[in-house]
Design goal:
The protein is of the alpha/beta class. It contains 18 helices and 14 strands. It folds into 2 domains: 153 residues, P-loop containing nucleotide triphosphate hydrolases (Rossmann fold); 263 residues, no CATH class. Helix 1 crosses helix 3 and helix 4 crosses helix 5.
């Protein structure tokens, strides 16, 4: 493997110096402009990490930071396929030579897809005389991976596909006070229509901005193929596609190693059950799938029970041609929003009964239950079973509040807050 010289980096630095920063739509949160630690932006591919870096660069320039004091490098650039950690010094030399930064002001380095540089943490441990923003989307830049590489020197910001609030903003639909929409039939109808489209095609920014439905599906299929080919590349590639398709087809449902193992064996693949766990762990590390454990204070009981699996974007089932399920996509959207809100989440199931009551989400803090959330596709009324499950779970867990999320039904009943999904998604956490 040949080294990348200073000359190799000069063309990349020159491109940056002479280019303009792409205009971007604002997301819900901003990165700090004067960080005291390395800022690590993690999350799934295509969720908007790069554009968050561009937005941060634009904010810095607006504050008067000279462009020459900034550098953005994409380590998935074709010219950087041979990159190694030893080459990063050459990158800096080319930067200082061509950018000519103002020595009286800080340097801001934006390093995108940094996980492609093996052992990058060694370089950061040598140099902290600049403001660093790094990003990545695979297991090597998961929270755990960053912690191992940077040893407590970084602060993580996770970027998911657009929230529903961001989705409406990208569509230029202003919603300042969701409670007013309850009494505005026209605006309520528009928001419900937008919500259905959001659930069908998901929240990837490029997909949201695309008006043509066939093109939305083409983009989502390309993203799916990218997950299969790139994020599962270190495992048996032949198993990646059937496994990921199985997850997408069965999202918001229970995951069983035996079930997946038997499914893959039925397709003619030879594998052991440990390979199924490897595939699942890879899906978690690349932010494609989110497993949910049973709420139980016993670690043994949590591990013995089935997990529920949710996918990073509800557009994937549509893209792969599976039937659109409003109920399951609603539940998945709630799970993703709880991840954005950084909640500690489990599910609840009545103990000792295979067909017992269930509650979709248990929100806890240090295993103290704060809220129970049930999701149902209800428009005008709610089923007694949903309320019964919430109250039963409350008696067992001591939950402080109960929430039933519906499609478009709003009321208060038996101590349960009943709220439409669109309202809940638009509330400020």
């Amino acid at each position: 493997m040949g080294e990348l010289s200073v000359e190799d980096f000069r063309s990349l630095v020159a491109e940056w110096v002479t280019s303009s920063i792409p205009s971007v739509k604002k997301r819900e949160f901003d990165l700090p402009l004067e960080p005291t630690s390395i800022i690590s932006v993690i999350g799934p591919r295509r969720a908007g990490k790069t554009y968050l870096l561009y937005h941060t660069l634009s904010r810095l320039l607006a504050r008067g930071v000279p462009k020459g004091n900034t550098l953005y490098v994409d380590f998935e650039h074709p010219r950087l396929t041979r990159i190694s950690v030893e080459n990063l010094d050459n990158m800096l030399e080319a930067f200082y030579e061509l950018s000519r930064p103002d020595p009286t002001m800080p340097i801001y380095l934006f390093l995108d897809e940094i996980q492609n540089v093996r052992n990058y943490g060694r370089w950061f441990r040598k140099r902290l005389n600049a403001k660093f923003y790094i990003s990545g989307s695979t297991s090597r830049l998961s929270s755990k991976g960053v912690a191992e590489e940077l040893r407590g020197r970084s602060i993580d910001y996770t970027v998911y596909p657009l929230s529903f609030r961001e989705y409406l903003s990208f569509k230029d639909v202003a919603v300042d006070r969701p409670e007013l929409i309850l009494y505005n039939r026209e605006k309520r109808g528009l928001v419900l229509s937008m919500l259905r489209e959001y659930l069908r095609f998901g929240g990837y920014p490029a997909v949201v901005l695309e008006r043509d439905e066939p093109e939305k599906i083409r983009l989502l299929r390309a993203y799916f193929n990218s997950v299969v080919v790139r994020d599962f590349a270190n495992l048996q590639p032949i198993l990646a596609e059937p496994f990921v398709k199985f997850v997408v087809q069965n999202y918001a449902g229970y995951f069983s190693v035996n079930r997946v193992y038997n499914y893959l064996r039925s397709l003619g693949y030879r594998l052991g059950k440990e390979k199924v766990l490897e595939l699942l762990n890879t899906g978690v590390e690349c932010f494609f799938v989110f497993p949910l454990e049973l709420f139980a204070k016993s670690e043994r009981r949590r591990q013995m029970n089935l997990k529920k699996l949710y996918v990073v974007d509800t557009g994937y089932p549509t893209a792969l041609g599976y039937e659109f399920s409003v109920g399951r996509s609603m539940e998945n959207a709630v799970m993703l929003e709880l991840k954005r809100r950084e909640k500690e989440v489990y599910y609840w199931k009545e103990y000792g009964r295979s067909e017992g009551q269930e509650v979709d989400f248990v929100i806890t803090r240090n295993y103290t239950v704060e809220e129970l959330i049930q999701v149902t596709y209800a428009e005008e009324s709610v089923r007694e079973r949903e309320l019964k499950a919430l109250n039963k779970a409350k008696n067992e867990t001591g939950a402080k509040s109960l929430t039933l999320i519906t499609w478009d039904h709003y009321s208060q009943q038996e101590g349960v807050r009943i709220i439409p999904l669109w309202y809940w998604l638009l509330e400020q956490p």
